[in-house]
Amino acid sequence: MLRKSLLASLLVLTAPMSASAHKMWLLPSETVLTGPNPSITVDAAISNDVFFFNHHALPLAGLSITAPDGSKLAAENQATLRYRSVFDVALPQKGTYRIAALTSNILATWEEDGGRKFYRGAKEGFASKVPAGAKDLKVTEAVGRVETFVTNGPPTVDALKAVGEGIELIPVTHPNDLYAGESATFKLIVDGKPGAGLEVEIVRGGIRYRDAQEEIQVKADDQGVFSVQFDEACMYWLETSTADDKTTFPAANGRSLRYSGTLEVLPR
Amino acid sequence: MNRIRPFATPGTALALATALTLALAPSLPAEEMAADGGKLGLKVEIPRLNVAEYHRPYVAAWVQGPGGKDVVDLAVWYQVKDTGDEAGTKWLPDLRQWWRRSGRNQQIPVDAVTGPTPPTGERTVKIDADQLAKLPAGELTLVVEAVREVGDREILEIPFTWPPREAGAFQAQGKKELGKITLTVAP
């Protein structure tokens, strides 16, 4: 049982577009606000059922909150609970905030004493945990971004500029300007370059109360651009992933990349 | 949300408006303002509701061009007074259409536009010459949006042509959060 859940956790961070992968998500209490210093609270979790926290808390170590002017903000009241993490974000500036949880892990599996062993963790811990000359060693660098967007007053885009590392969602339609019955367009980039042909899965929240996933599958074009029509107002979860060999970790055979975003679509 | 478009297309508005005018007696509200291009008058009815917990609604009335562009605000009524640590402006984004089209780009309060929600009844919206002067010529839409705490959201739209070639009155009837909306135009 333990092994199975550990394996599942491993899959979360390795398998691109795997059906068994658990969904990682941030759920902001609100995305459209106004006031001199409004606050939001955010749930952060890993689960199959968006947006119900029933599996794992999302680690907050890699939180990265970008204010409208591009500066970094610290999250307040951080806590990691049994099934979810929570934190608050104060929004003193007008404009759009980019709230992300970044992961950069090394995943290693090897043969030892007649069974598979594995390591998942920071690059720094690799050398001490993985025996030198391990048999049948497979090492992957996993780079992930889980994010959402929140706006105080007018939507702005300064905080949404490409960082240039991993998969990013660049707005064509602003992510806090999404409405039911309208089409929205986004651009995916990988290390700052167009994410040509990336496959995107989009799932509407509230999944516990319906039988079918009703997921939307779309494929980005040569420029990494894709459009989606949101039929209903709801929180939506979006994910795309890919793999390549552009790892910066010498012992790694390759790199897996994942992007998970939460977008709120409002009624018109 | 309940949305009513009383006319299928702006093109038919004039003909239907004439029919409505006959039923209405085309007297214009006294507060109506005249500009070079024409006159515009607006009355908004906030209905009396028999509910256990009543809060006055937030109401926005504005005119927009095709595609929700060229917005000119006529009135925004909300709870101006702060309650505890929450500014009264906190819930303005619940006027979702208005927030998208106009509110989020403005500094609240806005002179001659924002104010506290009046009690129930039919209220005449004060429209000043500056607001009228901002109206672009063409096929426009009056939009009135209301949202109430622990209540519903409702939007009414009335298309009209600006500047008007003849006097007319247009009406829309809300179902719950809004009562009768009356828009009058005259050259």
Overview of the structural elements:
The complex is a heterodimer of chains A (268) and B (187). The longest helix of chain A has 13 residues, at 2-14. In chain A, the strands form three sheets. In chain A, strands 2, 5, 6, 9, 10, 11, 15, 16, 18 and 19 form a ten-stranded mixed sheet that branches. In chain A, strands 1, 3, 4, 7 and 8 form a five-stranded antiparallel sheet that branches. Chain A has 268 residues and is mainly beta. Chain A is 7% helix and 50% strand. Chain B has 187 residues and is mainly beta. In chain B, the strands form two sheets. Chain B has a six-stranded mixed sheet with strand order 1-9-8-4-5-6. In chain B, strand 4 and strand 5 (72-78) form a beta hairpin. Chain B is globular. At the A-B interface, strand 2 of A face helix 2 of B.
Summarize the structure.
The complex is a heterodimer of chains A (268) and B (187). The N terminus of chain A is likely disordered.
